[in-house]
Amino acid sequence: MSIIANYARINEPELEKFTSEPEKLFSESAEYIDIDRSWDPMGWILSECKRAEHAYNQLVMQSMMNERHQEKSKKPSFIQRLFKKYPEEENIDFLKQEQKKLDQFEAEIILVGIEGRGENKEPRIDFGYGESCIFKDEELASISASFNESTGLESKPDFEKMDSEDVFPSHWREEGDDLFKNYIVANYNKLKHFYNKAHSENQIVIMWYS
């Protein structure tokens, strides 16, 4: 099941109306769009932070799978555990080291706009996948500018790497050209136009998942 990224631009005086009746965002906002789940591979291509997070999450998932498939061994005694480090402990240490590396990254402004990573949350607009995020004023201007300045989609990404790292929706080797042009770039351009319009008309943007 795909988690869809949704965006609506509204005039700020209307915010209270939409927080009271969020379902009206789909039909009564100045403009409503969704980009399906293209936000996931789009962010991976455009953001070093996203790629680092994805790689770390893959390590965590692989670690969990390895633990499930490990043969159960005799539980070591307390004394043994004092003087010997066991594989599961080494694995925890490794993940902690990778977490420290991940902590060095900060989400780029374009990723903030794509995935709703801003700090201005609106809990009254929640369609089951967490609080919505509101962008306005200087933050909205920065997001709009980041879309206009980005060159990350001017050339094709490494489809082999995307498949090896299990980037959604997979099958990049076979279908990469079509997915890139008609799914990633098409939705990026739609979102870029949307943010530019919201900024030029001095509106606010509400982003949520469904």
Total tally of structural domains: 2
- Which descriptor suits the 3D outline? globular
Regarding CATH, which class of the largest domain?
Alpha Beta
Which CATH architecture of the largest domain would you pick? 3-Layer(aba) Sandwich
Q: Return the CATH topology of the largest domain.
A: Hypothetical protein yfbM fold
The main β sheet shows up as:
5 strands, antiparallel
Structural class: alpha+beta
Beta-strand content bin: 5-15%
Looking at this structure, what is the CATH superfamily of the largest domain? YfbM-like super family
Radius of gyration: 21 Å
Strand order of the largest sheet: 2-1-5-4-3
Which whole number gives the mean pLDDT?
89
Query: What helical percentage do the residues reach?
Result: 55-70%
N-to-C span: 11 Å
